[in-house]
Task: inverse folding
């Protein structure tokens, strides 16, 4: 029995399965982003990776998550699993506080809490009546 895949783009399967041009498949990093008054919460699917496989950098208003999925050994008939290096950068509309950033991994889900910098938070100023 054979499976046939129809596509409008002739190289879509090659990109999907990492074939062609001798390049390593670059995996994407699916995310979910939420915002509240004090911080952003970024959730990413990193199934099969451990904390030491990831690199997270916060610089001014940009968060970059990079890492590497292991390459499969031997020949496979079908391979839809990610392999190779990936990197995802997100730019935020406000400055971020790298010192207050927290990251955790549980069941293949990366949760990153990125605090907004104190500079952008509104401050109340008391007016003195004389």
Result:
């Amino acid at each position: 029995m054979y499976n046939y895949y129809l596509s409008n783009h002739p190289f879509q399967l090659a990109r999907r399965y990492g074939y062609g041009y001798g390049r390593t498949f670059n995996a994407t990093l699916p995310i979910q982003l939420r915002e509240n008054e004090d911080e952003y919460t970024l959730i990413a699917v990193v199934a099969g990776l451990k904390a030491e496989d990831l690199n997270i950098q916060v610089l001014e208003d940009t968060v970059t998550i990079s890492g590497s999925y292991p390459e499969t050994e031997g020949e496979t008939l079908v391979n839809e699993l990610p392999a190779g290096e990936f990197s995802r950068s997100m730019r935020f509309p406000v400055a971020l506080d790298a010192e207050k950033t927290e990251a955790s991994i549980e069941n293949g889900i990366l949760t990153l809490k990125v605090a907004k910098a104190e500079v952008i938070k509104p401050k109340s100023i008391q007016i003195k009546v004389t």
Observations:
- The domain at 25-118 is CATH 2.60.40.790 (Immunoglobulin-like).
